[in-house]
## 1
Amino acid sequence: MGEKTLFVVNPVAGKGRGLSYLRKIKSFLKDNSFKADIFISSHSGNIKSELENFYLNYKNIVAVGGDGTINEIVNATDDLTKYSLSIIPVGSGNDFWKNIDKDFNLSSFLKSLFNSKTLKKSVDVGNLSVLNRQKDTSSIRFINSVGVGLDSMVAHYHQNHSNISGVLSYLIALFKALKNYNAIEVNVSTNNKTITGKKTLITVANGVSSGGGFYLTPKAKVYDSLLDLSIIDQVSLGLLLKKLPLALFNKLSVEIPQIFYEQTNRVSISLFKPFFVHADGEIVTKDATELKFELLKNKLEIKY
């Protein structure tokens, strides 16, 4: 493969699986005399700042990590059209990978990548503008989903308090969040509707699932030029404990009638009180007051 390739490795992804895959990647490159550069992040959350001026000359970027790793990569450069992104899904949740709908095998993927036989798909990338309590504004891209409410508190607990990987990690974080959570009061506007009141959870998504496999936006497609909005009304703790795990089996919308769902190209959210917000599972602010969403259509090429 003539184009320059960079592997971006998050060593703590999947509670250490990133380093395990790194050894296999190095062995493959050596055994097959393939050339590629490898970048190992010093710690999770630092990829964006370390890569901003580093990978502009690469045509192929391979994310060795999860949704948070992908998120940092797509936020590290202004022009998403300068490279193709591939994913070695070794994160705790790997929700974005579920949109690819393909079983992953490292050896097969590497052989396809270096023999230019990978498949390609252009996908949308979301953009989120945040106004916080201090009236500061910031902008961040997301590849999979943004959440405010219960799922952002789950992301907070998962990010800071769990040493377990996979779906179990998210379930533990979910029960911690349920124990301490109160509904948030919001005003949500789309092209077609305005919704006001106390809500348990709001998800604005590009992809079908979040939180390690909870299908909160099951109609979403990462290439359909639409944002998917899912809102769960304020419901009892007992109902949440009973029904929310059904989202793991894509049955939540059938079992909880208090769900509003819309596909749109514009969403804005005003929060009556500042709250946590996550983008692709990573907390981006703890005191958001206003959120505005747009979609960068067919902006990123995925090789898989």
Note: The mean pLDDT is 89.
## 2
Amino acid sequence: MEALKVWLHRRYETVVSSIAFWPTVLGTLFFLLAVVMRTFTTKAFFIAVDETIPYLLVRDRNVALSLLTTLIGGLISLMVFSFSMVMVLLSNATANLSPRLLPSLIGSRRHQMVLGFYLGSILYCIIIAMGFGLNAKDSAPPSTSLALAVIFGIVCLALFIYFIHGVSMSIQVGVVLRGAHRRTLVSLDRLLKRQAEQKPGQHLPDVGAWTCVPAWEAGFFRGINEAGLAAFAKTHHTRFAFMISLGTYVVEGDPLFYSELPLAKGFMDIDHFPRNFYFEEISDTDDFYGYGVENILEVALKALSPGINDPGTAVIAIDYLRQIFHRAVRLVPVITKADEDGVPRVFQALEDPLEFLDRQIVAIQAYGKEDPMTQTALRRMRDSLLREAAQRAWPIHRLEALGLIFASVQTPQHRKPPQP
């Protein structure tokens, strides 16, 4: 049951994060509002509204129909122009930043709400205009419904200005980097909090004699239902160890996890066991801080490319990475989940932050080894991490590993003043 709840929650998150979710919801609400307005126009409340604000209502049937037609055509043009502008801006963002950042740009909830309001206003006006064909030609138009249509049209004009400002700001490199940096820190703090709650001194077990369970489907390994697997392991008197990192792509037959004791035949059908594992077709997940780090790195490498040559952006990205790794080096290489009795049952391996840092520095150094601004930013990162290591009294081999990572960073050469 727990696995089913988590699976449903994952599906809910997928639906809510879709770009079509809020336009669909708002479009449905406006459609229902239009039906209500057409159904209850003759009620006492709407008659009282007509008598209270007669100066805002249209009494002529031809004028009302013409106004609705104008609103429908104008709002459709506004919506098409907004989508066209988004496509152009996203194309520029892809060329100047990174294609992997597009999901975060497209999935902005504020922009989805604006597009949903456009769609809902168009549907509302269409439904109200359809009602003109049901009444006699000499009957009075639904003045209150028409007044709401005009108000929605005015609000759409204001939202169009807000939409232009929001989209133009969202593709600025500083805003994109700041958003990726913020999301990465949230993901990293979540990992640190989880490790603070587990028992200290936890280590990955030696899985040499354990039973390897291969993957039964392909995809990016996004995570597991730890509570469900811990309960399953307790019931079967075993322990599970996951040696692959989050975000790793696996295919059928790759080692997925290890079990301390061999699992019974047919264990896949027990308690919906596969639902405890989450595989995705794409790797854009905020569950692991490494995804955000790679996004920031790609922006830095793009800025250092000869075609763009923007070392200032690369320096900002390196400074963001400095803060991220300043916290990441506090991680221990394992996350554990205990059962109800406090016995650790599930072990999830994490990549060593220093090994992960080494890959990022190698990539930046390859592109920016001749740029003094980039080298200065890398030296700041090195000094910051060395101070963190000194405060936490790292062992000698960890300090040596950190020194080797930044061994290729150039030291500034002090020039002597010219002799008179």
Note: Residues 235 and 294 are 39 Å apart (CA to CA).
## 3
Amino acid sequence: MSEDPWESSDPALALAQRELHWYTQAAARARISNRVSEVALLVLSAATTVAAALGAPAWLTASLAAATLVLTGLRKTFDWHENWLSFTASRSDLRTLIHHYRLLPEAQRDDQARQRLLEQIDETFSSEVGRWASRRRKIDTQAHA
């Protein structure tokens, strides 16, 4: 998707499809990262308990516990779960916008319809940024409390 959407015959639609592609990919990456981190956290936590119960060397038990702590911090820092939900919501919004635009008869896909689509794309992006900023502020507030 390296082609410039503004050089397309319908730049608004091409831009919407490009954004949809980005959100689809971002949601998939966040979903995978979230699931991998959840499973790894469970495995590390269980391994720490088992290592302690079996009398494993202190360095091993401490290393497992430290890895669990680092992974917990990474999850909080990168917020994969919330990103997955947010990107999925934005992807859904964009899909709906594209469907509505494509259902317009070709004759009605004029400059006004394109402008409206671009404004809706911008609103979707702004909402996403707003949700992200709100989450970051909440996390920062909790960290400093």
Note: The first helix runs from residue 11 to 53.
